Amino acid sequence: MKSTLIIGAGGVGRVVTHKCAQLPETFGKITLASRTKSKCDCIAAEIDYPIDTVAIDADDVAATVALLNQIKPDILINVALPYQDLTLMEACLEAGVDYLDTANYEPKDDPRFSYEYQWPYHHRFVDAGLTALLGSGFDPGVTNVFCAYAQKHFFDEIHTVDIIDANAGDHGLPFATNFNPEINIREITAKGRYWQEGEWKETEPLEIHQAFDFPHPEVGTKDIYLLYHEEMESLCKNLNGVTRLRFWMTFSKNYINHLTVLQNVGMTSIEPVDFQGQQIAPLEFLKSVLPDPASLGPLTKGKTCIGCVIDGVKDGKRLQKYIYNVCDHQEAYAETQSQAISYTTGVPAMIGAKMILDGHWKKPGVNNMEQNDPDPFMEALNQYGLPWEVVDGAPFLEQLQKHNP
Ligand code: NDP
């Protein structure tokens, strides 16, 4: 029987555990480990399938190796935080276990997340005959696979990709982030960046924005903001001939107002300040007073819509495609007790792990999603809760021409 170890009992860990438990023939014995064991127990109690639970500090390589040697899993699904990526990769190499994560490494004291920390592990994973699959969430993750699918089936050459991430859900609270607030706020308050003609162009945080009319009527027209996002780092290397890559995310005016005030008063800083003799990073303190993203599940109504508008050439003719998924917050909650942000990350993490365990994506080395055959993954998205659509991308690219550098 196969054995699966999931590390991280947050919003995404909850979805991964629910979804893996739905496929016992693939995942076999499931262990959920995290820093706080009671959170693992709480998730295990929701599921009608035996889940072993363990406390682990994933920053501690020796402790993680000991756990891996005891459980002997076929795969480690890392849905803790990006800070744990390197220690968990080290532990997997030492114990001989395949590895998967959903976000690239970021040093805790330096908000510059990048694959540059994880790609150098490639030869060590090749030599060990082990697979490390990076970024198997939605974005990064499914968006990379959408690009690989477009490259395989629709285009001879891809020229531009606009990745657009809409959360049209409403939780009714004045301000809350949909996933880990620290990671989320660090991402949004950073400078924007896009790839253009072989180099990165930088913008001020949230400087470029516009209205965008989404293909689903319940999502409608939303303001989208240009951000740097990690999938562009691998796509600019792996999509042949791509000349422009941009990433956009929706934010409401209310969200931006709250964030602006928090930023103006210094609450989003990661620089520790002295408070009554204690060193406290304002952003970490802010996290502790904001709603726990896991608590948003029962409150959130509405849909997400995430996908790629792709422009390129097929048989000498210019062509555009828009590939996207629409996910409903309440349906996600009914199935996994998590809202759609955790659901759209946890389902692809489960599918990525299934691709490795089934052998489709068992490929020694450190791989990004688009370096694998997209077809079995795309089929699994339809099967396991994230169905996708492909429509003519021309009217959507036209909307995006407003900021056509
Ligand atoms: P949460 O903050 O809800 O959960 C993180 C979990 O990791 C918590 O249970 C936490 O434990 C645990 N953890 C933190 N540090 C350690 C440690 N040292 N050892 C063991 N466990 C630890 O985050 P999410 O579930 O929202 O996100 C999980 C991951 O998914 C993140 O890396 C995030 O960046 C990524 N993500 C990816 C997306 C994508 O589309 N690719 C989208 C959204 C998220 P404790 O509760 O004790 O603090």
Automatic annotation (TrEMBL):
Domain Saccharopine dehydrogenase NADP binding residue range list: 5-133
InterPro entries documented for this protein: NAD(P)-bd_dom_sf, Sacchrp_dh-like_C, Sacchrp_dh_NADP-bd
PANTHER family per UniProt: CARBOXYNORSPERMIDINE SYNTHASE (PTHR43796)
Saccharopine dehydrogenase-like C-terminal domain: residues covered: 137-386
Organism listed in the record: Oceaniferula marina
Protein known as: Saccharopine dehydrogenase family protein
Pfam families noted in UniProt: Sacchrp_dh_C, Sacchrp_dh_NADP
